[in-house]
């Protein structure tokens, strides 16, 4: 089956799939302005650290391409200085959309560097714009290739790790959290990409995944991706991780990341830390897989990672279709699952898993494991 996609650029359009309506309705939204991109990221119509970085980059490319095609160039094309001021304002605005995912900051900094270099080279404004358009497109295009690289690194490492323990690697059962597939990236995925690789190479038994409340990225999005790819899978509630690891043979827990500190501490979707603690209790490998752009070498440890807190109301709501429905029509609905005007709601979007609970960290450059007796990672070989 054809993998799902979060972003598409075709027929002269930049579009995203509205992930708030999945899995029951597939609706693509036009991204016509920088403000559209910012809103889509902030309201989680698109989510996943690599995907939001790709959309931010593509929205700038789209903004400049559209400007070039107009009959009269906008005022910011008047001089390199005007162009620089305009683009810097856009990049700063896009960066505010979501604070935890480092990929967004990496993309905006990378575009800022291209801008600075082009201005310093005394290029004219059209050439500066073309440089930024090319770089924005490249940021999105290169994501699929690196996802496939890291998935192979991770899958092959897990097979060797399991076989090294004297266990057959022909039916590996793994658990993941949240959604890290094509919907969270520009294609293939990170943790879900590694699961896909295990399936494609005949090594996967079953993929278990948590519902991942309160946005249910697991039960809505991961379920849809695994179903689309015909990958054997089982959904569990977030509170069932302990029971699963007690009563079923799970060979690894595999998760993505929104930011990895220099020592290996990792911020990921809320519930990841819970899974890591329980995996450690059961001596099950806990694997983090993410692109190099997710590693933030400027942050020494997880205590310095900013954690986004979402509006309290979001933890009080659930999205889906009415069941059993009216006349067989799948009517979309948002329902409240708490008393109205509930006081006191704690709703962080991410948590931080300490490095000492992580077995391996994987990027497109390879696999890093903690050395015997050490509680932190040396990531120098994989960034």
TrEMBL record:
The keyword Lyase does not apply. The active site is at 258 (proton donor). Its main location: cytoplasm. GO terms for biological process: L-methionine salvage from methylthioadenosine. Pathway: Amino-acid biosynthesis; L-methionine biosynthesis via salvage pathway; L-methionine from S-methyl-5-thio-alpha-D-ribose 1-phosphate: step 1/6. One of its GO terms (cellular component) is nucleus. It is an enzyme of class 5 (isomerase). Its EC number is 5.3.1.23. It is found in: Cytoplasm; Nucleus. It catalyses: 5-(methylsulfanyl)-alpha-D-ribose 1-phosphate = 5-(methylsulfanyl)-D-ribulose 1-phosphate. The record marks 178 as: Transition state stabilizer. GO terms for molecular function: S-methyl-5-thioribose-1-phosphate isomerase activity. Keywords: Amino-acid biosynthesis, Cytoplasm, Isomerase, Methionine biosynthesis, Nucleus. Catalyzes the interconversion of methylthioribose-1-phosphate (MTR-1-P) into methylthioribulose-1-phosphate (MTRu-1-P). Belongs to the eIF-2B alpha/beta/delta subunits family. MtnA subfamily. This is Methylthioribose-1-phosphate isomerase. It comes from Collybia nuda.
